[in-house]
Amino acid sequence: MAIVRMKRLRMLVPLGECRALLRDLTKAGCLEIERNDDWLSDSQLAVVLSRRKTQANNAGCLSEVSQALDNLKKYAGVKKGLLQPRNIISEDSLACEEPSAEVMASVSRINEAARELYSLGSDVSRVQTQKLALLPWQGCDVPLDFAGNGSFAVHFGTSPAIFRFEDISKAVEDSGLAAEVSLVGKDKEMNYLLLAVHADDSKAAFELLKDYGFGKVSFGTAQGTPAQGIEDADSQLAALEERRQALIAGIAAESGEFDGIGKAFDYYSIQSQWDEIQSSLPSTRSVSFITGWMPEECADAVSKIAEDRGCAYEFTDPEEGDVPPTALSNGKFVTPFGQVTQLYGMPDYRSLVDPNPIVAISYFVFFGMMFSDAAYGIILFFACLFFLKKARPDGGMKSFVTMFCLCGISTFLWGVVFGSWFGDFVTVVTERITGTAWAMPVLLDPLEDPLTMLGLSLGLGIVHLFAGMILNIVRQAKRGEFLDILFDEVTWMLVIIGILLAFFGFGAAIYIVAACLVIVVLTGGRNNKGLGKITGGLGALYNGFTGNLSDVLSYSRLMALAMSTGVVAQVMNTLGNMGGTSLFGWIFFVLVFVVGQVFNFAISILGAFVHSCRLQFVELFGRCYEGGGRDFRPLQYRTKYVEISKEA
After folding, report:
1. Of 396, 425, 512, 587, which is the most buried if we count CB atoms within 10 A?
2. pLDDT tens digits, residue range 212-231?
């Protein structure tokens, strides 16, 4: 259980074998390939090295397939459910078998229909805009293209609604002009007017109506009356909708190819990844250069792959200035809890300790103690187990769900200790049915014995802190920092142990505490000069005492969250019990129970997750963690729609 030792690989690959080699390395899943941009920036190397672009159009095909999948999801409602497992195929089937002509033809039909749907959307917007423009004029029986004859003209126009039509009409009538204005329609914003005017008086009429905000309206090439135009627009919209439905039905008819298109997506994803890597490799006319990082234990497998492909290669240890990726090797129980560490950040490759074993044990205990209900633990365990079996997730999702599955076991065990099964549900129900309350066995009731619960929480906290100190001692011992071990770690461990012994009646332990505190004052400033040796010791005493005290007290959150889970559950049961034992009372009890327990489950599991992480990140990692590492991401198959069979 430690940080995996890495080796740097340098390899010369014949150009003709590059693609096959990438497939072999992807299948092995143990090499992280580097980009060697600095090689091409070297003026001497740039004379013989260059990057060779691949001629394949895998990226374009991937884009088309991705669009087809999005269109199936959007228009046909086809998608993979969360609990729907992916199809299992062989590695050869994914890496070597190009998508069939039928699948790619389906992709083309789907995308063509989607493009036409997009175009139809523009047409619908255009026709709807035309219709909206005609609606205010639908009461007019004058054709839209009628402009009058040689002696008079007809104009469609609008005027702001703040001007009354009666005032406009009277102004035209009083002007003595050979003109007449009619009100066609009106809304909150505009008056819709029709102006008939003699050709000789047109200019004067417009000058007059300008005072009333009159503006001409043009309908372009529209013909017929507004009512006919609206009817024509409705006919066009109906035809467009009919075509739209036909296109959607056509896309839906292709839904049977969803799995094949999904496989095509994964195929072109890996092919595009290989294209990108191949194009990024510094190459001469005959060979390409590959460098990367791999676990030391994979050297034999990579050697065989390289020799089978006629490559020249070498393995070297990390040199000064190298930044290898960090990979962790842990057991089946510890590995899922590594996700907690990754949330904080990967340890530095040169870190001398792996915190994951301590994280796994402590997180398992802390989460269950804070969630602390046996029924909740059963639900969490079987829900996660069902998801793992049904959906078959991989990668980080699988680790997270597995972690919560294990935490369900811890929650159940702590719930049995505290006698909490949906709070006091058993007691309430038995009393409602028989009139006599019966309670589940309890080993420790946090509500009845809070001091013992607090002592247990602080005791677990001290063990957790000591584990962090021991990890730091191991790290310092590997570096030969034995004085730091003695004066910074062992001394404070003895102080904490001495205080505990004195609390339990061992009076002589106080002398151990006093002696250790004197040592802290005398040695805390050992790396300082002059007066700093004294002030440094006093500062070390103050910081160490307050820091360790606050760290220990922070574990009281274990008690607080454990009690809150049980209290909220009991409150919900009490509220539900207020309805009595009638039929209505039982219905009310069930409703309150379901809603209340779901709410408590959600809030409590969130609190247990967050605060368990917090105890790792602040209390444990603050003592022994060396961050700054980057995750090891080897070249491997990462599929979205298919799953490669385990035999591969």
Report:
1. 425
2. 999 888 887 778 888 888 99
